[in-house]
Design goal:
By secondary structure, this protein is an alpha/beta fold. It is elongated and about 55 Å long. The model has no long low-confidence stretch (mean pLDDT 96). α2 packs parallel to α3 and α5 packs across α9. The chain has 9 helices and 13 strands. The longest helix has 14 residues. The two termini are 37 Å apart. The strands form 3 sheets. The protein has a 6-stranded mixed β-sheet. α2 links the parallel β4 and β5.
Length: 253
């Protein structure tokens, strides 16, 4: 079975995703979060690190768990209760944890936004939605009824898609920012977009969408962000021959 030195693999992922210097939320802590075995022979990928995803990765015999949402969203806190249980399980199973948040959303090849765009039949070319001067999402072009786009999106995601119908009946310039992209709604309108595809928004986004003349398609935070970790794991398999498994643990949100 192929195996790779852990340190070499982590350096490769850091460079491939451009983790160094990529801005993010304070609790993201992109990169290696918990050390594991010296060699990696099998990968597991999940959207979120949780007691369930750690247990499933250990059961699969993985040496490395790749996630989009890591351990430290709440900031520094004592390693007690559920925090202790997660870290203890990682160490006990010699299971390394690597987390990539905005660098994985934004990556032009295997990022959540780019892969979802291609799965929807679009070729992402124009960037959209910046976070501290770094592009996160994409703009794609189309000419189709908004309800047809909604139906295709539901088929691709395998789940319900909610429409906030503030824009035209036909979509033409569409922005894609996966996860919680509601903060880009006004920017999308200013940029001449008529539709925003994302995972979830706050309640007030409904009024904003109507007043801005924007359609918003909501596919769920989880379902719009399964793409990046799977694409990253697949890339690593193709490059280094390391097998992987996706741990599908949907939140329904």
């Amino acid at each position: 079975m192929p195996q790779l030195e852990s340190e070499f693999l982590f350096r490769y992922i850091d460079e491939y995703l451009g983790v160094a210097g990529f801005p993010d939320y304070p609790g993201a802590m992109n990169g290696l979060q918990v050390e594991g075995a010296a060699q990696v022979q099998r990968l597991a990928a999940a959207v979120d690190v949780s007691e369930a995803s750690i247990a499933a990765a250990a059961e699969e015999g993985a040496d490395l768990l790749l996630v989009h949402h890591g351990l430290f969203w709440g900031g520094a806190a004592p390693l007690t209760g559920r925090r202790f249980r997660k870290v203890a399980a990682l160490i006990r199973n010699e299971l390394a944890l690597y987390s990539a948040h905005l660098p994985l959303d934004a990556h032009p090849e295997i990022g959540n936004c780019a892969v979802l765009a291609r799965e929807l039949g679009f070729e992402p070319v124009e960037r959209f939605g910046t976070f501290e001067a770094h592009d996160i999402g994409f703009v794609v072009g189309t000419d189709e009824p908004i309800h047809g786009l909604r139906k295709r999106m539901a088929e691709v995601l395998g789940g319900p898609v909610q429409l906030l119908p503030g824009g035209p009946e036909r979509a033409s310039r569409v922005g894609i920012v996966t996860g919680g992209g509601g903060s880009f709604l006004e920017l999308a309108a200013e940029g001449g977009l008529d539709t925003l595809i994302t995972g979830e928004v706050n309640h007030h986004a409904y009024v904003e969408a109507i007043e801005l003349g924007m359609n918003v398609l909501l596919g769920g935070h989880y379902l719009t962000e399964v793409w990046g970790v799977r694409a990253l794991a697949s890339h690593l398999e193709q490059k280094f021959g390391i097998p992987w498994v996706f741990l599908d643990l949907p939140s329904g949100l």
